[in-house]
Amino acid sequence: MPAPTAAPTAAPAVMVKPSGTINVGQKELGPYFGSPKLSGNPQIFLNNAAPVTETLGMYDFDSNKVVPMLAESWDISADGTTWTYHIRKGVQFHKGFGEMTVADVVFSFEQIRDSEKHARASNARKIFFADDGNQTTPDDYTWVVNSGVAFSDIPILELL
Length: 160
Prior knowledge:
Blueprint: H1 42-49, E1 57-60, E2 65-68, E3 71-76, E4 82-87, H2 102-113, H3 121-127, E5 134-139, E6 142-146, H4 153-159
Antiparallel strand pairs: 1-2, 3-4, 4-6, 5-6
C-alpha cells in the first residue's frame, strides 16, 4: 500500500498595496439629464447630476438641519409667506460661463415649474410661482418669494 501524502497547502497570500485608477462603466445608466426639467424622477436627476451640480441648500444628516450650498442663507417672514434667499457671491460656472446670479437660480426653478415630468413641478408652481404670490429680485444675489399663503418649511426645503 502506498504511503499517505500530505495534503497540499496554499501559498501564503501576498498583500498587494492598492494603486492606480479604476474606471467603472455601466451600460444601462440611462440618459444624463443635466436639466431638472427633463428629469421625471428627482432621484435620477440627483444621482446623475450631484457630482456636477449644487442646490440652494442640502440636508446635513450630522446636524439634522438644512445647510446652505449655493445660498448663503435664507430668511422667512414672521407670517410664513415670504422667503428671502441670499445667493452666494463668486460661484463660477464650469468652462468660463461666468458667475452665477439670482437670474440663474430663478431660471432653474422656472425649468422645474414648466416641466411636465419633474416630480416636484407642482410644489414649485404652488410655492415659488403661486397665482396669489409674487417674486422679486432686488439685486443680483437676492430672491424674494412671496407664496401668498403661509407654508411650513418642509415642502420648500425639499425643492432646495
